[in-house]
Amino acid sequence: MNSRCALVSKIIPFSCVDGPGSRLALFLQGCNLHCKNCHNPWTIGRCNHCAQCVPACPHGALTLVDGQVNWDDNACQQCDTCLHLCPQQSTPMAQTLSVEAVLAHVRKAAMFIEGITVSGGEATTQLPFLVALFRAIKSSPDLRHLTCLVDSNGLLSETAWHRLLPVCDGAMIDLKAWGSDHHRFLTGRDNTQIKASIRLLAAHQRLTELRLLLIPDRCDYLQHIDELSDFIGELGDVPVRINAFHTHGVYGEAQQWRSAVAGDVEPLAQALEVRGVNRVILPALYL
To answer: In the record, what terms sit under GO molecular function (predicted)?
Structure first.
C-alpha cells in the first residue's frame, strides 16, 4: 500500500462545478501563486502553528498542544474566525491524509460520481501525492472507471507534467491574464510557464478546459484579443470557460473590486467567437 500523504484543505464528496459531471473534489493546501482575486485565500499558505488563532476561536475548537495547533471538528462551528485571522493565509483545519485515506472517501462516493478532481490551493505543489493517488485509482478494479482531473494554475515544469500525464485524464487551467506584467500584478508571478503548460497539455490531448477570469477594469484580454485568440486557436478544439469575478470570499484590495456582470463578460465572448474561438462557455450565474 502507498503511504504517501498530502495536506488536505477540504473534500467535497459530490460536486457539479469541478469538472464534467458529478465529481469528488479534493482541495489540497498550499499554492505557488498569491492571487489578489483568490476565492479560497486560506488555502494559499500552510499553518506554522503560531497559535494566533487559538485564543480567538469563539467555540474553543482550537488548542495548542506540544507546540502544535489542534482542531476539534466536533466543537467547530465553521465560523471562519481563524481563517480571517491567519497571517499565513492558511487554516488550522487542514488535515494530513494518506492516499489510502483519500481512497476511502472516493470509494464511498464511487457509485455516484464520474471521477475526481484535485484542486487547491494548487494541486501540483504536492505532485508526488497527486501521481500516487491517480495511479492508485487507475490500478484499482473498483475505481478505474473514474476519470482523474486536476484543476491547476499551470505553474509546473514540462518534466513534472510528464510525471503526471500517464495517470491523469485531463487538466483545467486558468490563464488569469495575457500579459506577463499584468499576470504578475494579479498573482505575483509571470505567466510564461503557464502558457507553456497550456500548450503542452493541448498537444497531449489533456487540456480539458482553458479558463479565463473576467475582472472588470482589471483584466487585459480585450487589449490583447488577437494574440489571445491566435493562442487559443493553436490549441485545437478546447472549451474556453469565462468565469465572472465576484468578491465573495476574497481578501484585501480585491474586496473593493467590482463583480462582473453579463455586460462585462459578453464583449469578451463575442470578440473570441468573431475570431474563430467556437467553444466559449459563459458563466451559469452571476453573483
So the answer is: 4 iron, 4 sulfur cluster binding; metal ion binding; oxidoreductase activity
Q: Which residue has the cell 500500500?
A: 1
Other residues' Cβ atoms within 10 Å of the Cβ of residue 241: 16
DSSP 8: E
The strand pairing partners of 167, in sequence order, are none
Instruction: Give the integer Cα–Cα distance in Å for 198 and 156.
Output: 10
In angstroms, the CA 84 to CA 274 distance is 43
Q: 118-146 burial string, b = 16+ CB within 10 Å, else e?
A: bbbbbbbbbbebbbbbbbbbeeeeebeeb
- The proportion of the chain whose per-residue pLDDT surpasses 90, expressed as a percent, equals 92
Nearest-angstrom CA–CA distance, 51 and 82: 10
**187-131-172 Cα angle (round to 5):** 45
Distance (Å, rounded) from C-alpha 37 to C-alpha 257?
A: 9
At 8-63, the pLDDT tens digits run: 999 999 999 999 999 999 999 999 999 999 999 999 999 999 999 999 999 999 99
Q: Is-contact 55 150, C-beta < 8 A?
A: no
User: Residues near 106 by Cβ (< 8 Å), separated by ≥ 6?
Assistant: 24, 116, 137, 143, 146
